[in-house]
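Thread title: Can someone regenerate the structure for this chain?

I was given the following input by a collaborator and told the matching structure tokens would be attached. They weren't. Posting the sequence so someone can regenerate them.
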Amino acid sequence: MLHEIGPHLTGLEQLKAMLDTDRRAGLGETLDIRLVEAEDGRVVCEATPDVHLYNPLGTVHGGFTATMLDFACGYAVLSKMVPGQSFSTLEIKVAYHRAMTKETGLVRAEGKIITFGRRAAYSEARLTDLEGKLYASATSSLIVLPS
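Best answer:
Regenerated them for you:
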């Protein structure tokens, strides 16, 4: 069955179609970040860091961490969009709590809506390992673009 994704669907419908087909944004493909859960106002993305994501210090580059959190914050906001509506990130603030390495294993970025208004949305995300250990967190401000 073909799952068409586009602006004629609600954001949650688009996310569900992505889940059903394992479709990812280009950067999600490059970094192997997968959407694994999507509901109204909440999403979860997963990835497994490895040495190809390392910085010169021998740990996972902060850009990978920030990207996972940005996906989670943005997708949480997307889950609230009506057909034709879109958004753009205005700001994301990332706090790094501990370094990741390939030994960290699978990590999960859970994004949630804080508030969602006519013109702005605010979301937050937490990046944890499977035991719940916190590696990074973020808050994000996003502009809601009318349909």
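The chain has three helices and six strands.
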